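Recall the central idea of this unit: under ordinary conditions, the amino acid sequence of a chain determines the structure it adopts. In this exercise we apply that idea directly, starting from the sequence alone.
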Amino acid sequence: MPSRQKQLVFSVSGVLGFSCVLTAAVATGLPLWITGAVLCRTGAELVNATGPELEKFLGELNYGLFSGGRVKQCGLGGRTTRFSFFPDLLSVIPVVLHVSVIFFCGVVILFSSVVTGFFFFNAFGRPYETLQGPMGLYLWTFISWLCSCLVMILFASEVKLHHLSNRISNFNEENFVFHTYTERYDRSFWLFFLVFLLHGLNFLLIRLAGIQFPFQESKDLDLSGGAADLMY
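Accordingly, the structure predicted from this sequence is:
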């Protein structure tokens, strides 16, 4: 590929990498990872609420990695409360798993910044080492791609396997029992899915620039030198 076209491809990849940095940073901070409805089961069972009557006992819940909010409906109007994971919910959430999600979010932001710099470095500079040269782009892009995938997997495990929404809904509740009625992944989760796709697209752009995948090229063995050495 001509150098001008290669510069264009690397520049586009750099812009995509920078978009990943901004998208991951915004998604990490927003309390919009999960949105759902919470049923006040205690109140609904007291009056045998069914059908449209359940709406009087359905509240709202939304949260991210650091904070969230909930509206509790128990038939007497809504109660709006705000909460933060640190330090309020440390006793009810799977701390190690939750911190791992935040950690990998930080890794995605960090290495997306690194790969953005190296894309522009390869577009307009002269790389002189493997980790800074074209082959290194696969490494930094793969790390960012893998970590963005881990963020989604770990967070989904926390929500589904550890019933995170139920734990949050029943936090500090003594008289009522709440149950997750509906829940769905909100914008921040899908923004990380977008980051995952953009890093995958960067893989294709690197290959489009004419750079072979690592370990794809077989090195020719220099047998002549070895044969000459055996003669001495």
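Residues 95-124 form the longest helix (30 residues).
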